[in-house]
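ARCHIVE RECORD
Type: protein–small molecule complex
Small molecule: protoporphyrin IX containing FE
Source of inputs: curated submission
Record status: active
Notes field left blank by submitter.
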Amino acid sequence: MPCPVRPEPLKNKASLFFTFFVKRNSWLSGLFERSYVMKTGRVKLPGIEIVIASELPLVKKIMIDEVENYPKNNLLHTLLEPLLGESIFTSNGCQWRKQRDLMNPAFARARVSEVFSLMQQACDDMLMRFSKINQQNNIRDMDAEMTFVTADIIFRTIMTTKLEPDAAEKITAAFTRFQHQSLRITMLRLFNIPLALFGFKERQRKDAAQEIRDTLEGLIRPRYDAISQGDDKEWTDILSTLLNTIDPETNERFSFKEIVDQVAMLFLAGHETSASALSWAFYLLAEYPEIQQQAFKEIQETVGDRKIKKEDIKKLTFITAIFRETLRLYPPVGFMAREAKEEVTLRDKIVAKGKTVIVSPWLIHRNKDNWQKPHEFDPQRFLQPHDTPLKSKYLPFGMGQRLCVGASFAMQEAILIIASLLQQYRIEAVSGFEPKPVGRLTIRSENGINIRIIKR
Ligand code: HEM
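STRUCTURE (tokenized, with ligand):
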């Protein structure tokens, strides 16, 4: 079987500028074949100096052993601030600890299992949309479909609010504008080009972020005011956990802005990543029909034709392995950016104080020192014992103290969506269509992921 798609590695340095910055605006297009085997690498272009650490002991040093010396990179904060404010995703030190303490109870495994029925309602609506498919018109862009259902899940589980198609379209469009302009602004910053020259782009970006925040603020405000006035209506969503958590330092609830910042972050971190992973999972299932058939067999044996229950999720071990293998090949967060607090030497590379250090799941997951036949799709890898500890070389959800808070949430949601869809539909690759992976905020396909959906 041929390997699933990956961007063609660059042949020489001369093509780097054109491919990376001008043609595709995707950092994946800036990789060479040797990027996949190097232990450390350095990217040095005018205005940019980045060290990439891929050797596993170095990765552990940065993410766990000496984590205090490698805080989150400030560029990411500047980039996301208009949308996320002071959110957990980009904060450091005491501020991060306080925000993590606020988030942890809302995402504890037991709490995630409680929101299963809310996830299922969004999943049912997705199936309803698919039920309109007919033989003449049965090709769907799974990237768009997964963006809708995962955003809907976030709205329902966090705020008990269903995402209506009109609102979904508005928010998704604003988010696409935000992402697009953010990428341009990052490039300008990296090359030290004065932003003042591009003030209108920065304005467009801020307007898009504000549009999303206005929607969220409108939904959160009545709940926040009700709690402040002692309304103890029993909500079961994640917002209620956030609203009721007391800050141990001040003994007070979190402020309205703090709550909106965290909800905006959950909206971004929670749907963009899951949508990316799920659309790649359906691409792989369509490309590998025998694996799809094996997954269907597992659903028949475990669930049959009845509705999927939350107890079924952990029994669907083959589907879990498929999703884990998808996260290995197409980790939505393709790189994690940190900065060196002081000058440091990583193997043979000196990193000056304040310079960027990158740990890339995309590169680590596709390095042949860590994985046999690394570019092949083989879910069995996750059903067999590993020769090196899995958690040292598999980091789709990050590593150490900044590990993804929503990992259990994402796994439950993904298995539910994959199993619900395959229970009712067979999917097929569309001949002549090939997705083009691009590395932006997450790893997505530039031309969507078109798939043929056939009712069983
Ligand atoms: C397949 C889906 C997902 C993937 C692959 C993913 C991946 C990641 C990764 C790699 C990080 C660490 C980033 C870093 O260290 O720089 C992270 C952090 C985070 N993720 Fe996820 N994520 C997913 C889904 C979710 C969901 C569903 C939520 C919430 C609803 C969420 C919330 C967060 C938060 C709050 C953080 C920041 C944690 C901290 O810094 O303490 N993620 N995620």
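CURATOR ANNOTATION: The mean pLDDT is 89.
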